[in-house]
Each structure stands twice: as C-alpha cells, then as structure tokens.
C-alpha cells in the first residue's frame, strides 16, 4: 500500500495550495480518506475527511477555507486550501481508513510540508 502526497510548498498568507494524495494497493473506493496535519511541537490533528459516500467533515479551524474531494477513477484525494494563514503551517498527511465490524485499518502517507509566510 502506498499513499503519495504532493502539492505542498511555501506560500504567502492569503494564498492557495492544492494537495493531492495518490493511493495504490487498496480498493480506493472502499476507504474513507482524510488529511491530517502536524505542526512542530504539536500533536497530529484532523483537517478534513471524506467517506466512501462522499460525506465530508472539517476541523473548525479550516471550515470555509479548505475543501476535500476525491476522484475514485484516479485513486486520488485532494485538499484545496484557500485563504491560507501562518497557523496552517504544518506537515500534512494523507490517511486511508477502512472499518468493518470490529476491525479497522489505517494507512498513512509520508507527509508533505506546507509553509505559510506572513
């Protein structure tokens, strides 16, 4: 299983970035996909998730600014990030999650750095 993130980089406050996560080795459409982030000295936190049925959930801090979407034909999940703030600076990780009855499986990407300057 591989989750490969791309699209991170350095952007000025108020700018936009689009992250992508390409998955392989899983039946992508069966998995809920998510984006998490971890800033230096802080715990990893949820940013946004999208279920196999395309229901979405966002952290309060990104609502109205970030949009998660998925393309099952391309086995890819996206995170469109607009109106970026310096506090959005973090390593962003892609997650694939599947649960069935009493078991759950999680896969993680290697992360992509997002830096928002003042």
Strand count, sense and closure of the main sheet?
Answer: 7 strands, mixed
What is the first-to-last residue Cα distance? Answer: 37 Å
Overall geometry comes to: globular
Please give the share of residues in helix: under 10%
Run of helices and strands: EEEEEEEEEEE
Structural class comes to mainly beta
Total number of helices: 0
Question: What percent strand?
Answer: over 45%
Q: Low-confidence parts, pLDDT < 50 over ≥5 residues?
A: none
> Total strand count, please?
11
Query: Mean of residue pLDDT?
Result: 97
Report the C-alpha radius of gyration, rounded. 14 Å
Describe this structure in words.
This protein is mainly β. Helix content is 0%, strand content 58%. The chain is built from no helices and eleven strands. The chain has strands spanning 2-6, 9-12, 17-24, 32-38, 45-50, 56-58, 66-71, 76-81, 90-100, 103-108, 112-117. It is globular, with a radius of gyration of 14 Å. The relative contact order is 0.32. The model has no long low-confidence stretch (mean pLDDT 97).
Layout of strands and helices, then pairs:
Blueprint: E1 2-6, E2 9-12, E3 17-24, E4 32-38, E5 45-50, E6 56-58, E7 66-71, E8 76-81, E9 90-100, E10 103-108, E11 112-117
Parallel strand pairs: 2-11
Antiparallel strand pairs: 1-3, 3-8, 4-5, 4-9, 5-6, 7-8, 9-10, 9-11
Concise overview:
This protein is mostly beta strands. 0% of the residues lie in helices and 58% in strands. β5 and β6 (56-58) form a beta hairpin.
């Amino acid at each position: 299983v591989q989750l490969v993130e791309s699209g991170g980089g350095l952007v000025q406050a108020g700018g936009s970035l689009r992250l992508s996560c390409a998955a392989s080795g899983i039946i992508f459409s069966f998995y809920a996909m998510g984006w998490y982030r971890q800033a230096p000295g802080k715990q990893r936190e949820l940013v946004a998730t999208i279920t196999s049925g395309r229901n979405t959930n966002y952290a309060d801090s990104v609502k109205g600014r970030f949009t998660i979407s998925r393309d099952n034909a391309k086995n890819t999940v996206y995170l469109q990030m607009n109106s970026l703030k310096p506090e959005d600076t973090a390593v962003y990780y892609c997650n694939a999650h599947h649960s069935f009855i009493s078991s759950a499986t999680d896969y993680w990407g290697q992360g992509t750095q997002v830096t928002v300057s003042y």
